[in-house]
Write a sequence for this structure.
């Protein structure tokens, strides 16, 4: 247990080393620690924010989905209405065409019947004339008896 | 750890005295308890060397310090810094003072730990190498700087000077003088001498116990290592030597493991007391 001048040198070294650490070691390390702490705090805040954003986005997605479903229902209803309308229109149109066709056919048939009747009348008149000729055994001049034949035709109508 | 001295002529007492003698500027054992003409080269070599190693290690960590993910070395130094910073924050309430005192405490902790850790080297290793190098088998060499009272008192006197500095800085010269004479017993003029004497005793007691505590622990630890080394050394000259060798191994291992706790604890205590004493200088009684 002895004491000597090493004491003073040790004292000076002690203060110098402390000074060195104060100047060159402590500030950069504390700065790094503080910056890291801030970074971590920022990171946690960002994570929280992201979580909030996600929750909001999910809520919005659900809303959008619901809206889409509703509008899809509307669209389907409209489409069904349109389709049934189309079908009804088509039915009506078809009916109209069928009726018209029937009427046309009927009208055409009437005309044809009339024509056939006409030609039958002509032929009958001629047949009558021919028959009369045969009965009378003489030629009847058609020009002479045109009036007679016309009268006959008239009567046949 | 211990390796016995091979020199046969040495008695155990001579062995220990030789190991406890410093390499100094006189070349002989210091006779007086206090002799300012003597300087211990070995103590200063190891304390300055390990001090430089301390600041180099810390500087390395400081140079690489980024706010990114730290590596293991970085992380361990940062843990240490954080620990010291927390302790300093709890004890010294002036941020301005902490700018110097906290780094000082960190340095002191690492530095004293390293100086103490020299105790874990085999007690004869460096002295033997030194004796080989100087071709002088009586060359003195002590490797544990903290087992030198000059070194530990040097540091505790440093703390004392800082206490005086902060006392004056924080309280003003007048305020501090007032405190010296009026506390702890009271402001009555009759009590002034008593108060002053108490204050002086307090400063002396703090400083001496601060240095002595570290010195005592390390000196005792070193001595135990030497005794263990002696036990192993007796192996060569004793018929029951092999038992002594086994005893050496067991005791050396046990003491070294226990000593890890002591060197760390003493470094921590010295650091904490540095903070506490300087913290006290900031507060009125």
């Amino acid at each position: 247990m002895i004491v000597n001048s090493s004491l003073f040198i040790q004292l000076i070294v002690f203060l110098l080393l402390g000074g060195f650490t104060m100047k060159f070691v402590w500030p950069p390390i504390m700065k790094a620690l503080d910056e890291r702490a801030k970074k971590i705090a920022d990171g946690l805040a960002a994570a929280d924010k992201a979580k909030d954003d996600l929750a909001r986005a999910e809520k919005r997605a659900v809303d959008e989905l619901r809206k889409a479903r509703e509008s899809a229902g509307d669209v389907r209803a409209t489409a069904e209405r349109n389709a049934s309308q189309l079908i009804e229109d088509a039915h009506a149109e078809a009916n109209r065409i069928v009726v018209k066709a029937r009427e046309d056919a009927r009208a055409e048939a009437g005309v044809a019947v009339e024509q056939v009747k006409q030609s039958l009348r002509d032929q009958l008149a001629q047949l009558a004339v021919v028959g009369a000729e045969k009965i009378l055994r003489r030629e009847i001049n058609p020009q002479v008896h045109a009036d007679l034949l016309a009268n006959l035709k008239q009567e046949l109508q | 750890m211990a390796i016995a001295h091979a020199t046969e002529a040495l008695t155990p007492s001579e062995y220990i005295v030789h190991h406890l003698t410093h390499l100094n500027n006189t070349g002989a054992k210091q006779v007086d308890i206090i002799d300012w003409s003597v300087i211990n080269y070995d103590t200063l070599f190891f304390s300055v060397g390990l001090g430089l190693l301390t600041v180099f290690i810390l500087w390395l960590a400081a140079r690489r310090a980024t706010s990114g993910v730290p590596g293991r070395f970085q992380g361990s130094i940062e843990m240490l810094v954080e620990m010291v910073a927390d302790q300093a924050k709890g004890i010294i309430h002036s941020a301005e003072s902490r700018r110097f005192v906290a780094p000082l405490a960190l340095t002191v902790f690492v530095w004293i730990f390293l100086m103490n850790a020299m105790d874990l080297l085999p007690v004869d290793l460096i002295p033997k190498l030194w004796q080989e190098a100087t071709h002088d088998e009586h060359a003195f060499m002590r490797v544990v700087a903290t087992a030198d009272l000059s070194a530990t008192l040097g540091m505790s006197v440093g703390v004392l000077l800082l206490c005086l500095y902060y006392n004056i800085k924080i309280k003003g010269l007048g305020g501090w003088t007032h405190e010296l004479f009026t506390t702890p017993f009271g402001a009555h003029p009759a009590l002034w001498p008593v108060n002053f004497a108490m204050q002086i005793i307090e400063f002396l007691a703090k400083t001496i116990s601060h240095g002595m505590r570290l010195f005592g622990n390390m000196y005792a630890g070193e001595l135990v290592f030497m005794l263990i080394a002696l036990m192993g050394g007796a192996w060569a000259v004793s018929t029951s030597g092999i038992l002594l060798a086994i005893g050496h191994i067991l005791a050396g291992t046990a003491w070294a493991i226990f000593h890890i706790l002591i060197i760390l604890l003493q470094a921590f205590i010295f650091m904490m007391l540095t903070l506490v004493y300087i913290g006290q200088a900031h507060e009125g009684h």
User: Anything to note?
Assistant: The mean pLDDT of chain B is 89. Residues 12-281 of chain B form one domain. The longest helix of chain B spans residues 192-233. The CA atoms of residues 139 and 153 of chain B lie 25 Å apart.
